Amino acid sequence: MKWGNDRRFFAAAAILAAALGGCASTGNDPRDPLEGFNRAMFGFNEGLDKVVVRPVAQAYETVAPLPVRTGVSNAFSNVGDLWIAVNNLLQGKPGEAGADLGRVLINSTIGILGLFDVASEMGLEKHEEDFGQTLGRWGTGDGAYLVLPVLGPRTVRDTFGLALDSYLDPVWQLDHVPTRNSLVAGRLVSDRAAFLPVDRVVREAALDKYAYVRDAYLQRRRSLIHDGNPPRERFGAAPAGTGIASGVDPARASTNLLLVEAEPVAGIPVEGQDAPVPR
Amino acid sequence: MRALIFALTLLVQASWGGAAVATAADLAPDALVRNVTSEVLTIVRSDRELQAGSHKRAIDLVETKILPHFDFTAMTALAMGREWRSATPEQRRQLTAEFRTLLVRTYSNALTAYKNQSVEFKPFRMQAGETDVVVRSQVVQPGAKPVTIDYNLEKTPEGWKVYDVVVGGVSLVTNYRSTFAQEVRSGGIDGLIRSLQAKNRSLETAMLSSARR
Q1: Rounded distance, CA B182 to CA B200, Å?
Q2: B132 and A236 in contact by Cβ < 8 A?
Q3: Residue A273 pLDDT > 90, yes or no?
Q4: A196-205 and B89-112 are packed helices; what angle lies between their axes, rounded to 10 degrees?
Q5: Is the CB of residue A90 less than 8 Å from the CB of residue A134?
Q6: Residue of A nearest to B172 (CA)
Q7: I need a labelling partner for A172 at 20 to 30 A (CA). Which of A79, A117, A277, B77 fits?
Q8: Order of strands across the sheet that contains B132-140
Q9: What pLDDT, on a 0 to 100 scale, did the predictor assign at position A265?
């Protein structure tokens, strides 16, 4: 059963190697040197979503009433809180880690096996952590943007994070394969259903959906790594083309393509740190 | 008796429209965002047409209540980055108009999806003399994780104006940066204007056909 996880890891590594091997720079964005490969994979995922994933998620939304869907998503979320606690500890946030453990204890008991998120109502806020964020916190740069089959947007760093996340994922640890597979699929559907309302906004807002999703993913991850308080990039809102672009242009300035560039770590936000400008 | 009614009417008017508009210029940024949010939510909660999914209604609401507090020139400049400098005044005007239309179309539709959300504001601190601030809030809804919404505001002679909205860590403005830069690289600034116009036209068509249904 461990083999299944290893295989996933190797598959990811192989795709990565293949992609990096054929790494003729196809795009203009230094954060996305694999744009050609990524666009193809994005197209594949979009097709899969259209034909299978979204219809199933929509059916789920129609069939299961909100309280049921909430219960399902709470139960998966509860299982995830343990690993979130470990990550908070690894990021030097014992207080948050304690709160995560408290959540698991409360929700698994009073919350009836995690079906009800009683802890949130008691003021123990849900955190969102994973090993990719922990690596980021430790100073690992994003690495190239990478679209994985089925799983969607990641970066090289987050792909490594994901490998460990899934390796230690309690759901993937289940020995009974049909149960395990149903749960993994169920979680995918539950997660996808939560995103249904966003579909339309993205479709309407984007001039180029691929770039829109990529940029949103990268911004979102940056925010998560800094727990919602990323250092502000001060473009200055002054109109008439004065200081707006004063040197900070994420699309060009970021040169940390692979797992090389270290960011300053933990807590002390440095302005514009992920968009280094040559001085 | 008549005098009393008259006085009451005045009072009600003042507390509704008058107060909010007249003092918007010297309102603190967090108070401004709070007021507008609660005003809009009150309307959304009671408006049948809006709840039935009327886009026109949503756009009307956004245009009259929300947009006066936005600085679209600053938003467009921010989305353009360094390309803004090379745009002529006429190109800037067109870019701003098209970008405004796109943002309004797209995000006013979010109002029609309103269910039972409520908005909470996080504690706001501001140093004296600051002219660029962030007001943080989150949208809470039953059965889902809260979504953070941060408003970036800049002080202008006409009061505080929003120049960026950051939802769940994603800036609705700078998220366009690389797309805009790409469009400018391939078709110049006029190419970008044409792309925005085409996008807005297709949204317009979609809106009309869904209204007919």
Answers
A1: 18
A2: yes
A3: no
A4: 160
A5: yes
A6: A216
A7: A117
A8: B118-121, B132-140, B147-156, B159-167, B170-171
A9: 36
What token pair was written down for A226?
A: 């800094």
Q: Are B187 and B180 in contact (CB under 8 A)?
A: no
Q: Among A130, A106, A141, A123, which Cα is nearest to A227's?
A: A130
CA–CA separation, A266 vs B2, rounded Å? Answer: 66
CA atoms within 13 Å, Cβ hemisphere of A279: 4
Q: Please report residues of A whose CB lies closer than 8 A to that of B58.
A: none
| Environment class of A199 (CB within 10 Å of its CB; exposed 0-12, middle 13-18, buried 19+) | middle
Report the C-alpha gap between B74 and B71 in whole angstroms. 6
Q: Which residue has the higher pLDDT, B21 or A146?
A: A146
Whole-prediction pTM: 0.80
Using one digit for the tens of pLDDT, what is the confidence trace for A7-44? 555 555 555 555 555 444 456 789 999 999 999 999 99
For B156-171, the DSSP string reads ETTEEEEEEEEETTEE
DSSP B70: B
φ/ψ of residue B164, rounded to 5: -160, 145
Residues of A with CB under 8 A from a CB of B: 28-29, 66-67, 69-70, 73, 126, 128, 194, 197, 200-201, 204-208, 211-212, 214-216, 219-220, 222-224, 228, 230, 232-241, 244-245, 249-251
